[in-house]
Amino acid sequence: MSNPLKTIYYFDGTPTETREMTDAEVLESFPDGLDPADEAPAPAADSAE
Amino acid sequence: MAIKTFTAGSILTAADTNTFLANSGLVYLGGGNLSSSQTDFLGCFSSNYTNYRVVVSQGTLSAATDFCLNFLLGAAPVASNAFYYGYVGLTSGGAASNQNGAGVPLGRTGAYTSSGGQMFVLSFDIYAPNVNTWTRWAGQACNQADLGSRSGGGHWADNTQFTGLRLQSAGGQTITGKAEIYGYRIP
Question: Given an 8 Å threshold on Cβ–Cβ distance, is A29 in contact with B170?
Fold first, then answer.
């Protein structure tokens, strides 16, 4: 299961960054927890061609 | 300051231009598209401006939830239940949709959805976030949810000189839209 994405805009000229949130950031950011209906689905397993 | 009136044939000098620039109102500082569950604007608050305006347009959330705010010191919020807010809301059908919170770790903006994809627009002013005093905000949101609106604001009830702003959903829902941050030029 993936964590939500976060985007960071820097006002000092550093390039914009978008990445998956860490577990610690999720705990800090969503005090009521993640909405289970909106969590990203697990990626499908690779299938043999 | 007296505003100079130009007439046909008048010459716009460097001094005139500088005067108008120095007395302009809102100054665009930065912003960007919202496409994640959380967006940080690091370094948007400084001593260059005391008060700020945030405009969010074409906002959506991927499921029913609230569009929230937090203030950042460096790259992270201050861990404290210091948010207090209250919004008066009214649906287009005349029902109340008020919202409040006291002593909580995350602020609200008045924007919300009752299902995924509903649009909202939002603007609010933030007062003295980079001053060693309480930070306060006030604004209004027009929500497709209930086809109504909410107006209100809140406080960060502690003396903190914040340097950044965070916009996020309440529970990890994905946001789309655009945010712009302006500074009120100090006369």
Answer: no
Write the CB contacts of B26 (distance below 8 Å, at least 6 apart in sequence).
B53, B182, B183, B184, B185
B40:A8 CB<8 A: yes
Predicted model pTM: 0.89
Residue B157, burial from CB neighbour count under 10 angstroms (0-12, 13-18, 19+): middle
Across the interface, of B39, B70, B171, the residue whose CB is closest to A9 is B39
pLDDT single digits (tens) B21-73: 877 889 999 999 999 999 999 999 999 999 999 999 999 999 999 999 999 99
Q: How far apart are the CA of A27 and the nearest CA of chain B, in angstroms?
A: 11
* SS3 letters across chain A: CCCCEEEEEECCCCCCEEEECCHHHHHHHCCCCCCHHHCCCCCCCCCCC
Separation between Cα atoms, residue B176 and residue B36, nearest integer Å = 7
Could A6 and B34 be called an inter-chain contact, meaning their C-beta atoms sit closer than 8 Å? no
